[in-house]
Fold:
Amino acid sequence: MGFDSSAAAVIPETQGGAMNDASSVYRIWREVRARLRQEYGDLVYAGEIARLRVTEDDQGRVCVLCPTEFGRSWAEDNLGARLRALWAAFEGAARDIVICAEGAAAPARTPAAAPAAAPVPAPAPASPQARAAGRPASATRQNRFTFDTFMVGAANGTAATAAKLIAASPEPQFNPGFFHGDYGVGKTHLLAAIAHAVELGETRRKALYLTAEEFLNGFQSALRARDVQPFKDQVRDCDVLLVDDVHFIAGKARTEDEFLQTLTALIGEGKQVVLASHCPPEELGVCDERLRSVLRGGFACPIQGPDLDLRRKILDCKIAQARVHCPELEVPETVRDFLAARVTTSARELEGVLNNIIVRTAYMSRPVTLDTVSEALSELPIKPERRLTVDDIQRAVAAYFSLTTDDLLSKRRTQSVVRPRHIAMYLAKTLTTRSLPDIGKRFGGRDHSTVIHAVNKIAERLPSDPTLAEDVEAIKRRLRG
Structure:
């Protein structure tokens, strides 16, 4: 039977006296929440995670309560698997966890088959792990993490190409594949996309996605049960093994040894292994040099933080996904440009900002405008920067190159003026919400095609011209004060 979450007693944050079941649940929730804050960042934590509450029902389930149905959907899609994995790791056992909106009935418990002696803990039904139990990929909530929804740019183009090659190749081209980068750059998305593509491919291979904590927790449970073989059988009974956050395994000698045995067994059988971590293989603090050698023997690919163009692509994709739950959502181009330029940390935080804006505007019947977006940002840990103008940029560029703004607006075509003018147009396009025709008018009445030419020329030269890149970055620092 379900229950009405509004009638359930919320676990209090502090309780005196001896530790009881309720306080134990909250203690674990506090640890889980702290880890989520560390991994997802203060912005997402303040906007989404801090608003979550926990209860425990009479069936022993932990219920994570969200203020709205939209928040529940977001939390399930973005936090569900990680939250469940962390809970299992901190409590030392698998726990039935449901995520629901406050006042809504939680789903009834689904009868489960008797587990093996020491199964790898599955976060929840319809997770990537559930696919290893025979669930079709199309039935999982991770379907939104596919190659179609992975936006590609200069920061992740090589990684996307490698991931698609791994998913499409019946035989491993390189083993293991190792993706590394900071939190929120898309590593988990890529691993889920590989698993999704593998299981829907013509060969119908079997993929198993695990976090390092799920691997660690499953192995430790097997050790406590003094029967490791069921754990080995379950982890190795796949064609493609994908393990996220492998840096959490480093430094745990017995787990490292089991992990090494698992990798060598799968690679020896011609099966594919794909790993992800926040650092490259050579920087992992592993104790076993044999494991380090195996990790370095494949293909290691970095994923960088998204640049402006990629952030805009990601934002467009997230807005399209949000319209599934909020069909009336309309985000003007000027707002999209502003957000892509304003939130520069990671795709994850960009999505968190968008979710906060949606709740504060569309769900409150308010239009999404630059003013309402600035108001929403002011309520988050980051503060909106002073909105730059084309005039600001022209003055900064002119001062940097010892010119006047009249020089930039003039018809002069000498190199000493043309290059700074192109840089100023490039910065005007990437740092403001002004349209191309408007920028052209502000540069002496030039046509928008002239602005396009200048912007493209600077963008193409930046990766290969260190002097130009240094000049552009120095001017940006001046503009930031």
